[in-house]
Design a protein that fits this description.
Layout: H1 2-24, H2 32-53, H3 55-60, H4 66-71, H5 74-79, H6 86-91, H7 93-96, E1 104-108, E2 118-122, H8 123-140, E3 148-151, E4 163-166, E5 171-174, H9 184-193, E6 197-200, H10 202-212, E7 222-226, H11 232-242, E8 246-250, E9 259-261, E10 267-269, E11 274-276, E12 279-280, E13 288-295, E14 306-313, E15 331-332, E16 334-338, E17 342-344, E18 350-352, H12 354-361, E19 369-375, E20 378-383, H13 389-403, E21 406-411, E22 425-427
Parallel strand pairs: 3-5, 3-6, 6-7, 7-8, 19-22, 20-21
Antiparallel strand pairs: 1-2, 4-5, 8-9, 9-10, 10-15, 11-13, 12-13, 13-14, 14-16, 17-18, 19-20
Length: about 425
């Protein structure tokens, strides 16, 4: 109990420091050339620290001298360091930890890639992350202490705990596990408090609006989504139901890198603490790259060239072109998602879900879906709303002609993982 209380106090303190960093920073975004010079010094210092203090990188970087780290091109240095995968950390956990580094918090991945992982994050790394999130809130139009409805990160103890109020942050939490049957008293309380903004997993926000948009009596000024891939069809439905704009945020529990979506619907790298080594992938097209990242503020547990298992959609010629929103930081077109988000075709070959998302997003009036593959020759296509025979025929024809897969249509509740997230694709084949 005491440990939990201390963790809560630390979280509040570090969040406050992140907000303070935002409030007192005159220029919320530095000019790109200025930030590059700042980053260059920080990154080289961090790499030498990792090489010296981390048992894992002391061995992995033994071929690089401190002089080379200080003088070689950063791209060449990073390319000479092997990629670190989640399994490497799980198999060598103690070697990644800096024994004498005490100012850290722990964070855990949800396990959506099949391997839950607990990491240490330095206080400074967490402060920067809070700065990034709150900066994104402000881009959305949020003002400090505006009431925000949070549809995530709350697992109720019982049916009387579905709604929880955080007075410190002025956040109103509603359970993402009860969105199909929220009591009228909960909706009444939400209407009474009238939150101005909504934050949550895309699937949770969409479910809330699908079920209760006609029951709420307040105006939503903006919606902040994160922690799941935001599908075009879900964005469209959320914006139509709420009559407000969606601002999406992408990151990982490991904090290796994060991107925020601007008013121009482009994703920008939070450049102040991350180096992204865009690794070209031959799996897809030339504009789809793997996100290999390094958080150079995390001195508690350095992880260099971390394979996030995510893919990003980019235009190489526009990576460092000033966006129409005014931000100069690295911009990408979208987040494709996890590299383990795939299906098998009937011939046992992996199939990317990119083309599937593209096909489904072009169907008119298409509802939220989930695809589960339990058999090599068949998928379960789950929706919570019935879809027409015509749509079923188009979908069946697409999966059969493209992948040799049969399609079973089901109307039932979506499968959610332990954190309440709803993966759009689940592959149960080994």
């Amino acid at each position: 109990m005491l440990k939990k209380t201390l963790n809560t106090i630390t979280d509040y303190y570090l969040t406050a420091k992140g907000i303070q960093k935002y409030a007192f920073k005159k220029d919320k975004f530095n000019k790109l050339d200025i930030q590059k010079r700042i980053n260059d010094k920080k990154i080289r210092k961090f790499l030498i620290y990792a090489k010296t203090k981390s048992p894992y990188y002391n061995q992995l970087m033994s071929h690089i001298s401190n002089s080379e780290i200080n003088n070689e091109m950063l791209g060449d240095i990073f390319n000479s360091i092997p990629i670190t995968k989640k399994k490497d950390i799980l198999d060598n956990k103690k070697d990644f930890l800096i024994a004498r580094f005490k100012k850290f918090i722990t964070n855990s991945t949800s396990g959506s890639a099949g391997m839950p992982l607990e990491v240490r994050l330095s206080h400074n790394a967490w402060i920067w992350e809070q700065f990034f999130v709150w900066r994104h809130f402000m881009i959305m139009g949020y003002k400090f202490r505006d009431l925000m409805l949070i549809i995530r990160s709350h697992t109720p103890k019982d049916k009387n705990d579905i709604l929880k109020f955080d007075k410190v942050r002025n956040f109103l939490y509603v359970s993402p596990y009860h969105l199909d049957s929220l009591p009228k008293s909960v909706i009444k309380k939400i209407n009474l408090l009238k939150p101005k903004f909504v934050r949550g997993y895309p699937s949770s926000v969409n479910s809330f609006l699908e079920n209760y948009s006609k029951d709420i009596n307040f105006s939503i000024l903006g919606i902040h989504t994160s922690s799941e891939i935001l599908q075009d069809s879900i964005r469209k439905n959320i914006e139509e139901k709420s009559n407000s704009k969606v601002f999406d945020y992408y990151g990982q529990a490991e904090l290796s890198s994060s991107f925020f979506q601007c008013s121009n619907q482009k994703y920008h790298l939070n450049f102040e603490s991350s180096y992204v080594n865009f690794e070209q992938s031959d799996k897809y097209t030339s504009n789809i790259v793997k996100n290999i990242s390094t958080n150079f503020e995390n001195y508690a547990m350095p992880i260099i060239n971390y394979d996030t298992e995510d893919y990003l959609e980019i235009e190489k010629s526009k990576l460092e072109i000033k966006c129409e929103c005014g931000v100069e930081y690295t911009q990408i077109n979208g987040i494709i998602g996890r590299s383990n988000t795939f299906l098998f075709n009937a011939s046992s070959h992996r199939v990317s879900t990119i083309n599937i998302n593209t096909f489904l997003s072009k169907l008119s009036n298409f509802p939220e879906f989930q695809i589960i593959q339990k058999e090599l020759t068949e998928i379960e296509f789950i929706t919570q709303k019935s879809i027409s025979k015509n749509l079923q025929h188009k979908i069946t024809n697409f999966f059969y002609t493209q992948f040799g897969l049969g399609t079973k249509f089901l109307n039932k509740k979506f499968v959610r993982i332990s954190t309440g997230k709803k993966p759009p694709f689940i592959n149960n084949l080994k």
